[in-house]
Amino acid sequence: MSSKYHLVVYGAGLVGGYISGTVAASKEADVTLVCRDSLAKSIANNGNFLQATKCFDARGKPVVTREPVSAKVESPCLNLVSDPMSSGGGLLAVKARGVPVQCLLVTMKRISVQTALLELKSAGFDEETRDREGEAWFWKGTTVVMMQNGVAPSQIVLDTLGKSLNVIDAMFPFNVTHAPNNPAHFIEGSTGTVYISDTPQGQQLAQLLTKAGIETTTHHDMAAIQYGKLFLNLNNAVSALSGEPLKKELSQFQYRNVLSRCMNEALAVFARAGIKPHSFTGMPFSAISLLMVSPDFIFNNTFGLVMGIGDSATSSMYEDLVAKRDTEIDFLQGHVAELGRLHGVPTPTCDRIVALVKDIQQRKVGIVPHTGQEILSML
After folding, report:
1. CA–CA dist 336, 361 (Å, integer)
2. Is the dihedral of CA 301, 302, 306, 310 positive or negative?
3. How far is CA 69 from CA 34, 49, 63, 79, 212, in A?
4. Of the ranges 34-38, 49-53, 370-374, which one carries the lowest mean pLDDT score?
C-alpha cells in the first residue's frame, strides 16, 4: 500500500463493491475491500479486476458512454481481505497488516450491524482498548462511517462500544446492480447524491468520493437526511412485493396507491413525533405522496425521480427476497409502525406491508409477484 488516504470498505455487497471499484480505479485513495470468499473468487475469475459503471450524470440524466472503470487487485490502489466464512476475521486481518486506516466505511445491511459491532470489538475498536493501548492503539486515526438504510446506525455503535469514539453516519442514495453473469462488475442503477455527517473527517471523505466520480456532500443533520431517505425507501417493499423492476412498478397507478398510503402514514407519524425529514427533490413530502396517486400519464411524464432510474434497476429488498435473505423491512415500514405505536398514530398499511414481506421472507420462496390490486385488496 502507498501512503495515500487508506479507505477500508467493510461489507462488500452492491454498494460496497461499487464504491470500492470506483474509488480504486480513480487512484484517489488506496482501498482495502473486506469481502466474502465468493466475491474474491469472482474478482479472480474477472482477471483480478473489480469494475464499476456509472450510468447517470450529476443531474440524473443517463450518460451516453457507459464504459466500466477497472481496478486490479494487488495494484497500489486495491487490496482484498477475504473472510471465507464471513466469520468476523476481516478487520483483524486489516489490523494485522499494520497499514493506518483513515476511514472504515461500513456498508453492510442494517440487519447486519450487530455483526459489525462484534467485529469492531474483536479488532479493538472500542473505548476500553483505546484507553488501555494509548498511542499504540491501531485505530487512533480512523473514522468509522456507517452507511446503512434506516436511522442513526452510528448511535448503535457509540452506545455499544463507547460514546467518545469517532463514528459518523452516511447515506447512499441510489441502487446498484451486478452486470449480467459478472458479480465483480457493479453498475449504477439510479441516481442521487451521497450525504455524510458534516465533520472534518466527513468533509475529507466527501471530497475524495466526489473526485472519484461519486457525487457527495456533507450535512449537519443526518437524522433529517436519513428520515428523508426512509420516506422514499418505503417503495422498497412495494417494489419487492410487485416482483417488478423499480421503473416498471412506479409507472403503475395501483402500486403507487399502496406507496402513497404508506407515505401518508409516515407523514402523520413524523408530524406527531416532531421529525422533519429532508426533501431531496425540493418538493414537499405531501406533494410527493399526492403525485403518487396522479394518473399514469401525468406521473410518468412529470416525475423526475422516475427519469433517474435505469430500466432494470430493482430495490435492495427485491434482491434480498430473490436471494432468500432477511430484509430491512423492520427499519422501513416497520420503523414507521413502531413510531406510530409509540406516538398513538395508527399505521394499518405499513403494518400489513410488514406482515406480507415477513411472510415471504420466512418462507424463503424468493420473489412472489403481486399485482397492485392484489396488494390493495389485502390492506
Report:
1. 19
2. positive
3. 20, 10, 14, 16, 11
4. 34-38
Alpha-carbon distance of 236 to 332, in angstroms, equals 9
Residue position matching grid coordinates 466464512 = 85
Cα gap 171→173, rounded to integer Å: 6
Average pLDDT in the 152-177 region?
Answer: 95
Give Cα 189 to chain centroid, integer Å.
13
Write the pLDDT tens digit of every residue in 331-345: 999 999 999 999 999
Which H helix or E strand runs over 355? helix 348-363
The position carrying cell 481496478 is 71
Position 1 confidence tier, pLDDT thresholds 50, 70, 90 = very low
Q: What is the DSSP annotation of 9-68?
A: EE-TTHHHHHHHHHHHHHTSSEEEEEEEHHHHHHHHHTTTEEEEE--B-TTSPBPS--PP
The pLDDT of residue 180: 86
pLDDT, tens digit, for every residue of 209-246? 999 999 999 999 999 999 999 999 999 999 999 999 99
Residue 297 cell numbers, joined: 400519464
CA atoms 62, 45, 29, 134: torsion sign: positive
Are β-strands 103-106 and 6-10 bridged in parallel, bridged antiparallel, or unpaired?
Answer: parallel
Cβ-based neighbours of 202, under 8 Å, separated by 6 or more: 143, 145, 168, 170, 196, 218
